[in-house]
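Cross-check.
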Amino acid sequence: MLTLRVDLKKLKLIILSLMLFVLIAIVGLIAINTTSIINYNYIICSFGLLVFVWSIWSWYKLRRELLCPYIFFLMVAFVFMFGQSMLKTLRIPISGRDLHQMYPLTIMLRANLFTVLSLLALHIGSLSFCRVKGRDNSDSSKSFIIDSSSTTYKAISIVGYCLFFISVGPMLIDLYKKVILVNAFGYRILYEESLMETGLSGWDSLFTQFFVPSLICLFLSSRKSKAQRSFASCGMVLYSLVYLYLGGRGQAIIVLVTLILMWHYTADPIKGLRALISALFGVLVLSILPVLRQLRNITGKTLEDYIDMFLLSIGNENLIVQTLSEMGSSMFPLINVMLLVPDSYPFRFGTSYLYSFTTVIPNLGMWKIHPAVSKANLGIWLKDVLGLSYGPGFSFAAEAYINFGWFGIIVLFILGGFYGWFFSLVDKKQDNPAILVFVFTVFVLVTMTTRNSFVGTVRAFLYVSLPLYIAIMLVRNSIEKNIGDQNSHVSAKNVVEYSSTMIGREN
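Predicted model, tokenized:
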């Protein structure tokens, strides 16, 4: 009876979400085919804010969790893809590059409508395929420090230390080079440096990708070692601080959020006052971001420059609005794709998704340019088409549109189904702690690629997260086999000793 009741709740939320989807689609269809678009554009933006609130509320009603990977992933998606439109809905002036002022209302209406429907379709997919949290399910807010498989924790720790020692050297070298480049040429040089590397030339970059996952492993396996947990925490904080200095705001915040989530799930649930403090800390980080935006292209910057700019910004500008304005400009790729496709360039009909999986194949001279670069890295394509001197990034909404047009919204439903199912696997942490490692490594890597095309997600999954999980399972099986062999040896020895004792007694 309980299962039926929970399923009905899920079905109800899905139906209500579908009704909201149909309502927005009808209003959008009317808006596109009318000459009075100003008010309609505002209405669509208002619908977007409603979808944001509804998505968080419905997930909480179904899963009874707010501090979780999916909610943060959803928030990042909304901020990057719809941040400026949210500010428009609240009638807050946009700071910096205002996309609504740069492009005609007709194209902004279409871009806003497609984004809102895409994000809602993503959430409907998540609701449809996520695990239902009922009374008989484990509470995700509780620590998973239970009597689970000790061999799994040992395997996670071993793999974590191995990856750390393999990746720490390349990571330090990489960060040093980036600091030198940014100080000399400004932040935009990193966009050129970070173009997709495919093939043997990208092995050094691949090693650096294991640095954060190694710290995740060390943190999640530290149930009996506070020193190990502190070491992993300090490593993630220092990593984030360096990237904040470099101007990599999104990457730094995602790593910090991952640390907070892991602490919540494994060490001590964050509730009440701690939740408030965490929120205030988040606001402080958001307040720092605009300062980094202004300084990241200034050469020869010092710590005093950061402090002076931060204090000046506090008195003159709304720092959170600045942050939302800047991050929300990531609707730029979708707008330009809608202007270019299909008038100037044809739809790709799913080829970018298919070619994304070729990134697992190294370029050993088979191609002049690897297909993952030429066919799937759409950020590079858009940069070349628009003749930009910097990488504009991309988004999963823009990629869905360039492949299937308005029917690309279905792709977002499929992606949402996967993310909803995958991120709710945290419920299985008690059965297999390695699941939590898998979830958090995917979370941190996939969220980092929110402003990239699908190839970034595939590369992170196939090159980092999946091999990491497989390595943990192999090490665990090896440990269990050794323990089993030792136990068999001990048992056989005991049998022999017992038999000898009995024979001696009979004699």
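The chain has one domain: 2-138+145-490. The two ends are 67 Å apart (CA to CA). Passed to J.P. for a second look.
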